[in-house]
Fold each of these.
Amino acid sequence: MAVVQRPTVRRRVLGANLRRLRLEAGLEQEDAAARLGCNASKISRIEKGESGIRQIDLRALLDLYAVTDVKAVDGWLALARESRERRWWRALEDQLRDDFLDLVGLEEDVADLRAFEPGLVHGLLQTQEYAEAVIAAGEPGPLDDEAQARIAVRMERQKAITRSEAPLEAWIILGEAALRQQCGGPDVLHRQLRHLMTLSEVPSVTLQVLPFTVGAYRGGPWSFSIYKFPAPANLEVVLLENHTAHSYLETPADTGYYGACFDRLRAAALSPIASQSFIGEVAQQLRQ
């Protein structure tokens, strides 16, 4: 019995965009299958991200879909190559959930991130001691191997926003509660807030605070992240996290809804400059 490979986010992005190109060309899966000399089920697996695609087959499909620009073709070929690569975090497959590993891949591959975190500091902005407190979740005793691995990966993930070449452009809105929840105690929180103030000076980071005084707002008090892939993909993916798993939403209706929510939040939140001052005030209150 054939084993269907679990689709990674990167493969889903490639597959979803190949489907888009096929539909824009007015072709059916049977037309693409005929060009590759295979059956339509193979095209379906590729478009669902369940199967990779060889470079020669991708070139044939791009030709069929009338993608002839040299730079665009090179971009598609690079995306296909990268979808097969074994990345550094895959060494932790036996310690971390697959959906968490996919999240790490997202942050290395995308061009920008828009995120809302109402109750905790976003993972890309956390200090190690704050991250340890969040992951421990109040449980006594030392962290187990999985928790230690998650912390190590979280610290590595943060390099995405400070890397010298094409850093991740991150626009993050934090709820006021995220600045006041004393994860790890007042000293840990104070150092975390000072870290936020430092990160707010990083060119690739835009940080805003949504104060309690805003009241009710669109989308409710639930966190979400919107990741956007660069060309040729130009695809957005919404990430929703819960206690046991990550959910990825990729339809235009979903990404459009959460994009509109983020725009409303961005308009309601304090400006980046006012947010930096607000964070400093909360940090100062911890020392009084």
Amino acid sequence: MDKIQKQIVNTLKEKSAIKQRVYDYTVSAFGILKEELKNTVETINNELKENDKRVLLEYKDRGYFEAEIKVAGDVIVFHMHTNIFEFENSHNIWKTTYIQKDRLNSYCGVINVYNFLSDSFKYNRLDDLGYLIGRLFINKDEFFFVEGKHQMAFLQNDFGNIKIDRNHIKNVIDSAIQYSLEFDLLVPPYKYVEQVTVAQINDTINKSKVKTGKRLGFQFYSKDEEIK
């Protein structure tokens, strides 16, 4: 075996094996997340059963790597990516002692949390927009942290000290629901909708396909602008 082949073997033994372990932990966490989504829907619906049935939550398993809950006029989609990631050089994670001690600690699986309008799915409005409201990262030691908007940003950012468990996953779900309910749909600025083509209005009439999303018209915001 030559030098390059030895390097290949060492990489497979170290990095690739670690990535597989990260994947397994992320799959396990996503399985627990699905269970907690169902539990959350059942718990909340028990409190709402005497109210308008249209506000009841709904859970849907969309496959091995995806699940969703419908909350009033919102759909929150939880999606586990099948790949393992490392962070860009500018990410704050590189400033942590935990990562500086061992670069392999930086490899993470990710579960993305998206917020859509439920009508986008109901009326098959394929051009409607959704928002990434949070990301849950899990590494080879089952340590985790959360990146997200507002409530979700404060869940856990002390990477390297706390392991993911059922209670932390439940907090992610609750925070995603709370944020989505508080994240209201706004009318777009008049100047962006004052003109419409015949094709667009016909499409709207026939298929109800006006491009819509939370903060209607938010596609005109800078991607770096804070949503408040």
